User: Which sequence fits this backbone?
């Protein structure tokens, strides 16, 4: 069982953090030109009072996403680029339902999409460097 953890950590870091880092790097010129916004998806598990119990590799990768967001918000503010993160509890997806079952209180995908749309909108023009639970 112990052999599983390095692979799991590597997989989660790649999916959750390295992809966000790479995509941000590729998008920076376009974000700067448009004075755009980027929204990262973190997790409620990394917020104060959140629980990363039994999912340390996942929580670690999502904590890295929050650190990346804060760095990008600071680095790009002079270029008119905003960066924020949302940190929902479990989102209702077929993969999450298959893994966690139906007895979980899920956040609906539409609510996540609406928050991302808001954070990218002109209405949130003064919001940057924030984690929204």
Assistant:
């Amino acid at each position: 069982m112990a052999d599983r953890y390095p692979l799991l950590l590597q997989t989660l870091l790649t999916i959750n953090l390295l992809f966000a880092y790479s995509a941000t790097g590729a998008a920076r010129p376009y974000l700067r030109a448009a004075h755009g916004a980027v929204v990262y998806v973190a997790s409620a598990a990394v917020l104060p009072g959140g629980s990363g119990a039994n999912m340390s590799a996942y929580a670690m990768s999502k904590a890295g996403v929050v650190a990346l967001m804060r760095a990008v918000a600071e680095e790009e503010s002079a270029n008119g680029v905003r960066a924020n993160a949302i940190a929902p509890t479990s989102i209702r997806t077929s993969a999450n339902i298959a893994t966690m079952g139906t007895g979980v209180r899920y956040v609906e995908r539409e609510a996540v999409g609406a928050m991302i749309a808001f954070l990218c909108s002109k209405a949130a023009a003064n919001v940057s460097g924030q984690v929204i639970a």
